[in-house]
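User: Structure tokens for this complex, please. No commentary.
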Amino acid sequence: MKRKSSLSLLALLMALVLVVSACGKGNGGEASPSESASPTSSGSAEPVEVTLAGWGASPEEQELLQQVLDEFQAKNPDVKVKYEVIADQYMDVIQTRLIGGEAPDVFYLDAFEAPGLIERNVLEPLDGYVTPEFDIDDFEAPMLNAFKGKDGKIYGFPKDYSTLALFYNKKMFAEAGIANPPATWEELREISAKLTKRNGDRVEVYGLGQAPELARQMFMIQAYGGRVVDEQGFAAFATPEGEKGLALVVDQHLKDKTAAQPTDVGAGWGGEMFGQQKAAMVIEGNWAIPYLESTFKDLEFGTAEVPTVNGKKGTMAFTVAYVMNKDAKNKEAAWKLISYLTGKEGMKTWTSKGFALPTRKSVAAELGFDKDPLRGALVAGASYATPWQAGPTLPIVMNNFNNQFVAAYTGQASLTEALKTAQETANKEIEAAR
Amino acid sequence: MAKPGGRHKWREALAGYGFMTPVILILGGFLLLPIGYSVFLAFHKVNLLGDVSYRFVGVANFERMVDDPRLWIALRNTAKYALVVVPSQTLLALLLASILNLNLRFRQFFRTAFYLPTVTSSAVLVLIFMWIYNANGLLNHALAALGLPTYNWLGDPAVALTGIMLMNIWSTAPLFMVVYLAALQDIPDALYEAAELDGANAWQKFWRITVPMLRPVTFYVVVMGIIGTFQLFDQSYIFSAGSGGPNNATLTMVLLIYQYAFKVLDMGYASAIAFLLAVVIMIFTLVQRLIFREERY
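Assistant:
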């Protein structure tokens, strides 16, 4: 009897402890905001909170962004920024949160997804907030136009961009006696053959690392006059012109055997393949430079503009903007944040370390990236690059293209067939979704 | 005579329902209501993002399913997957359980070791296997050491699904092994002794006594196996980074539903496919019930 009652007493005590701690925490949480509000004697109420969300990046980039945000909050004590990183499946998370009304006030938007989201009428048009000091004309026109809706209103301001350039291994070039990086695609194939090293049947080093996806090959389709989508948004790449450019990519892999995709050598992406020296050349973007410099410090590499195809220069441009949620509670404060992040000061700090290139012409001139030995080639590409965007149906087109192109790339289907299947499936899906 | 304990019965019923209320609320709110809503959505064209709208379209979603090539690919992949994985994992589970049922030394250790894959999170298992299948990974190293040709296991559509199958068989078999083990211990020794007296060897004892006695358990294992394999999602999602590739090789039904629901935000069509999946699973289960009709004593 005694033992039973002491056990139940112990249980009761533990339950009480749990309840009290829970209540205590609740009270403690409620008490703090009122305490923090009292120090501000400027007459304005507690600081307004603006939520910001973006996808994850390297720790150095996160630190840099936090630095920009701290500078912003120091200049604007009435605005507090709550920054959140969405680790994976960024667009799925943002779309679901927008449906649920829980989306952040300001968030990243890639140019690729922009037409679809703008069409859904969930973003705030920013034209009304712009002041002359903001200097819209300072932005590079193709990057700014990527975020204009069909009504001509601006829904986001591009914070940075990157193009693709040819990264080449200087040591391998010297060993093979090649003085300059290739200027035309034919030269690229010849040089790849010289740089491919074989050990019996196995290839140890490929001349070129390729990425068989639409995001990287769009400009190849357009090189001979092909197009990815037509005016109604349907896929239109399965034409002889479109195929010609893609055939260059597939043939180098299947016939020349001097190029491969990263998974063929166990790498996750082109930068890793290049850094591990399994490929002498890759076509990658600005993001590869800090990655290679920090992860593969001993690698001597250079950059050059992407070799011309069919006599024309071509590359891809990827850009991301800050956009405002239509249901944001404090739009003025959110605009302050966006205008700082994409303003001259904020953009200068953000792009100063070279993780991405500035979309403002004045900032680009100030930071001198066009004269930078590694980034010069990327900046040069901005004037002729194809932006990675083509209307709201591009995601569906891309999915189907990527699916089928892999079959052609690995030799399981002919390129003509693969493109035809991809185009038909994509168009069926687009038709059914309308 | 007055009603015998009428008021007493009513009070008992009230108490019974009172105790059930939380379960009814939870099951109703989190299970029945979403299922009903999903069936409702299957007959509408729904737009949830931006300008919310529900438009009744009758069976248009179901008609769309007939023409959708990705749906049939997903159904084929899932059926192929189920048809290979379920027998394999059932056999493997039965084999392991039979081995463990023998009086070996270190039996406890083997039981724990065999059970480990089931308790490990499936996401972790997929990541581990992706590293093993990597072109520079353990599998290729082992093959190279034996002088066999190596391969890009992850990049080839033909092989990707097989990789997932092996991974799943290995991780799910132990779960059913435990079920079989419990059932094996239930078979009375007297049957085996009688068989020995009649001159049966080990194989005959296994095939003629063990397997028939385990029929109800096999039915359970196969049904749960089919339901589980038809719902395969996380392995193919992580393996293909959500795309279902390469070339739709790892596209399963639930991954397709996820893509339509959360990437394209076409809730109506996704609900229709989910409905189809439920019907397919039910048909399979009913067919199995006919095959594995329970013996009535």
